[in-house]
Each structure stands twice: as structure tokens, then as C-alpha cells.
């Protein structure tokens, strides 16, 4: 079992790092991560939604086989342990949607709160990445939409999330 000492498993990571947790606005827990959400890179450009780009802990994340995950870990602000996140109370829509953008189209697989069904983020299709082969959901990265989750600290302090919520296509009379 040579080299096994060099490989971190998820239990070691959990035991040696503080987790930052995030909830849907309905209070359902959604995300646990070793790095505050604000420290993750965001999608940029005028056509982008400014979603946080969050690497997910997958079975290949700790094995060293996933080159992309390994690269993210090297860039991590956490020095001795990999950067990771786990979706907790999210459910994946079974079918992808196509989003029209200024620069083309994007195929997304939506992640929703399992309690209230609010969209909190999405995965992109493999075909959206340069050099990727095939199609289907790319599991190693989730894009968390701005304002879709709040930290446990904000929730426990009773922070009002209403200013961060955008009602699209809803008139004033229909808001709940």
C-alpha cells in the first residue's frame, strides 16, 4: 500500500478543517465547504451570471486521478489540505436546460433546494468546455448563483435576505 499515506481521504479533510456551511433562503442546508464561498472564483464577463465556481468533492478528488481537481487544489487558499465542497440538500433536475447568452448557448443541469425547489446553482455540460469529449453533466464543478444561499452565521443572526432576492416575471401583487 505504498503511497497511501500521501493521499488524503475526505474524513481526514473533515477532521482537520473548519467547514463553512450555507443554506437556501428557506433554511435548508445546501453546501458545506472548506473555503468561504466569497473566496471562490466567479464567472465573469458581461454575459455571465457571476456565479461562484465551486469544486466538488468527488470520489476522484482524493485519489489524485482528476487533473482538474488537482489543479484547483494547488490554487487553493487552504495550504495543507485540498479545497472542497459538498452539496448537501440539493436535488439535480433530471433534464438539462438550454440558456441563451449573448455569445451563444449554454447547456445547464440545475441544482435545486430539495425543500422549496429554488434553483441554487447548476452544472455545465461537458460540451461547454474546450477539449472535452462527449456530453453529459460535468460533476466536478458546481456554479452557485449569487444570492441563492446564505451562510449559517447570517441565518442564525436573522439576516434579512429579501434585498438579495430578485423576483423575475412576478408582479408586486403576486410576491409572497
Structure in words:
With 176 residues, the chain is α+β, with helices and mostly antiparallel strands. The chain has one domain. The chain contains 3 helices and 10 strands. It has helices at 10-16, 67-74, 152-156, and strands at 20-24, 29-33, 52-55, 85-87, 90-92, 97-101, 104-113, 119-124, 141-144, 149-151. Strands 3, 5, 6, 7, 8 and 9 form a 6-stranded antiparallel β-sheet that branches. A 4-stranded antiparallel β-sheet has the order 4-2-1-10. Strand 6 (97-101) and strand 7 (104-113) form a beta hairpin. It starts with 9 loop residues before the first helix and ends in a 20-residue tail after the last helix. Mean pLDDT is 75; it is low at 1-8 and 60-81.
Mean pLDDT: 75
Q: What level of helicity do the residues show?
A: 10-25%
Q: How many strands, what sense, and barrel or not for the largest sheet? A: 6 strands, antiparallel
Tell me the count of domains. Answer: 1
Total DSSP E strands: 10
Count of alpha/pi helices = 3
**Outline type:** globular
- List the secondary-structure elements in sequence, H or E: HEEEHEEEEEEEH
Q: What kind of assembly state do the chains in view correspond to? A: single chain
Overall structural class, as computed from helix and strand content, comes to alpha+beta
Radius of gyration: 17 Å
In the predicted model, the low-confidence regions spanning at least 5 consecutive residues are: 1-8, 60-81
Amino acid at each position: 500500500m505504498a503511497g497511501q499515506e500521501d493521499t488524503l481521504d475526505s474524513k481526514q479533510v473533515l477532521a482537520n478543517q473548519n467547514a463553512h456551511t450555507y443554506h437556501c433562503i428557506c433554511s435548508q442546508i445546501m453546501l458545506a465547504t472548506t473555503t468561504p464561498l466569497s473566496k471562490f472564483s466567479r464567472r465573469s464577463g458581461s454575459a455571465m451570471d457571476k456565479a461562484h465556481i465551486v469544486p466538488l468533492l468527488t470520489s476522484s478528488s482524493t485519489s489524485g486521478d482528476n487533473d482538474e481537481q488537482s489543479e484547483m487544489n494547488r490554487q487553493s487558499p487552504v495550504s495543507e489540505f485540498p479545497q472542497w465542497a459538498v452539496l448537501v440538500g440539493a436535488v439535480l433536475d433530471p433534464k438539462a436546460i438550454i440558456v441563451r447568452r449573448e455569445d451563444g448557448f449554454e447547456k445547464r443541469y440545475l441544482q435545486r433546494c430539495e425543500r422549496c425547489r429554488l434553483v441554487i446553482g447548476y452544472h455545465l455540460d461537458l460540451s461547454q468546455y474546450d477539449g472535452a469529449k462527449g456530453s453529459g453533466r460535468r460533476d466536478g464543478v458546481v456554479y452557485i448563483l449569487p444570492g441563492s444561499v446564505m451562510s449559517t452565521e447570517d441565518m442564525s443572526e436573522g439576516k434579512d435576505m429579501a434585498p438579495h432576492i430578485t423576483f423575475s416575471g412576478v408582479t408586486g401583487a403576486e410576491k409572497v
